[in-house]
Amino acid sequence: MRYCINCCIHLLPNDLHRQCFRCRGPDHNNQKCPVCKGENRIPLYADSKQMKLLAVLEVRTDHGESWNGFFCLRKGKLCSLVFGLIIMTLVMASYVLTGAKHGLLLIQSPFHYGAFTSNPSLMDNESLSDMKDHYQPSKMNISYVKDYPSIKLIIDTITSKIEFIMRQRPDLEELRKQEPHMFSVIPNKFLPNSKNPCWYEEYRGNTTTDPYATNSYALYSKRFRTIFDYLRKVFWNHLYHYKDKHYRLRCLPHFYIIGQPKCGTTDLYDRLRLHPDVRFSAIKEPHWWTRKRFGIIRLRDGFHDRYPVEDYLDLFDLAAHQIQGVLQSEAAKEHGKMNNIVIGEASASTMWDNNAWIFFYDNSTEGEPPFLIQDFIHAFQPNAKLIIMLRDPVERLYSDYLYFASANKSAEDFHEKVAESLQLFENCMLDYSLRACVYNNTLNNAMPVRLQVGLYVVYLLDWLTVFDKDQILVLRLEDHASNVKYTMHMVFQFLDLGPLSEKQEALITKSPASNTRRPEDRSLGPMLPTTKAILRDFYRPFNTKLAQVLFDDAFLWKRT
């Protein structure tokens, strides 16, 4: 098998390969050949047969052709170098963007609190968990830094902007315009022979009608369906018949445990429901006033259909049945016996969570909500009683972080999230009032940790604009943990509950604490000392004001 040494073509046995100019003899010259003239390449001519290039044995070129190969080699290396630089640039860009997002850079990575939305409808289709998109870069921020003096400057700015200004209370007609259906369902007077607020409502269904068929609590949550299955079975036995009509007893709570989260409200609820005169809603935390009536099932899922007030009232049917039993007993009929059973509700969001207002009520000036939860509760129940359980806001925030954070929990991660949240809060305070920042949904959903929940005095002052001070009982978790019997007696006295036997009291006061910290969270240890110092400085002016309002220096939390 032969090959042309000049052009690498496989030659047949009798092929002289005359088409190759290099094979024409020693006198052939590329520069002089009319075909090859001016070309610095090896020309290839094949006859009509299709030829295949099988192998490269050797290519002999003149001096110019060797330079061509050199430049090709240089071009290949240059292309490789450029490609490598592009890859490196992309990797660095990815690092910068990811690091800035998570606060991992050693340079400043700004997070700026954006302007308030003036038109709530612009945000109606957004998930509440997406509100961080409304925050744009600002001129300064802290990233992953444990430098106390640097963060102290931010806290000093926040402190300088704090003003406790009393809000203006809306009148009743304004509230009616906002929630006409609610006012059409709940009467303005209740049964005189019941300590708990109750009334009779005509029931227009028949025996084949499911009274809870459209209840949103039953439809959207599987864990509540067992409760409603039982209510369906006993519903018809508790209807009151009068003049060929059916009536059902409806009730609202007599008292509310309104806050705060991670402050011992679950333990208080578990002990209080053991009292023979106390009943609670079928669900511990309905979150109706703050979330469900606006269509919020889970904050991260955005809005669904709004839960009507009838769905909320259904949750008290079990207690209403027992109250009705007392009202229709022989003693009540003959001697006018008073019903002393009271109903409680224990949604820990009631005190502070007004995040949904911006989507449903007209914006007021300077971003402050025109209506709050307490305005509506007071409109229906001006004599309602409110219980608040608080704890050191520094420890509350860390407990809140450990409970709600899903992954990568650590003292260092908590520190980073506190730093970022403080910066966001400062950016808001530079442009808006304290109340506007505390109640702003966009800011609250952007902060990695819920700093605002620990600003107890801001919420308390707003509740005191509509309720008298003697209608609110404020407790400390630290006191409750050290002396359960004392705090429970304070609650019994506040609610004017009946006396207990020694056995009943022991059952209530000596049962183990509820909803304590999980073992896996305990293993993470305490927060960093620097983080604790930062939070102490941040909460100090708010605690000082709270102690002044309550005339109790224990709410300074100096010893914890």
UniProtKB/TrEMBL annotation:
<keyword id="KW-0472">Membrane</keyword>
<keyword id="KW-0812">Transmembrane</keyword>
<feature type="transmembrane region" description="Helical">
    <location>
        <begin position="78"/>
        <end position="97"/>
    </location>
</feature>
<dbReference type="GO" id="GO:0050659">
    <property type="term" value="F:N-acetylgalactosamine 4-sulfate 6-O-sulfotransferase activity"/>
</dbReference>
<dbReference type="InterPro" id="IPR027417">
    <property type="entry name" value="P-loop_NTPase"/>
</dbReference>
<keyword id="KW-0808">Transferase</keyword>
<dbReference type="InterPro" id="IPR052654">
    <property type="entry name" value="CS_Sulfotransferase"/>
</dbReference>
<comment type="similarity">
    <text>Belongs to the sulfotransferase 1 family.</text>
</comment>
<dbReference type="InterPro" id="IPR000863">
    <property type="entry name" value="Sulfotransferase_dom"/>
</dbReference>
<feature type="domain" description="Sulfotransferase">
    <location>
        <begin position="253"/>
        <end position="517"/>
    </location>
</feature>
<dbReference type="GO" id="GO:0019319">
    <property type="term" value="P:hexose biosynthetic process"/>
</dbReference>
<keyword id="KW-1133">Transmembrane helix</keyword>
<protein>
    <recommendedName>
        <fullName>Sulfotransferase</fullName>
        <ecNumber>2.8.2.-</ecNumber>
    </recommendedName>
</protein>
<dbReference type="Pfam" id="PF00685">
    <property type="entry name" value="Sulfotransfer_1"/>
</dbReference>
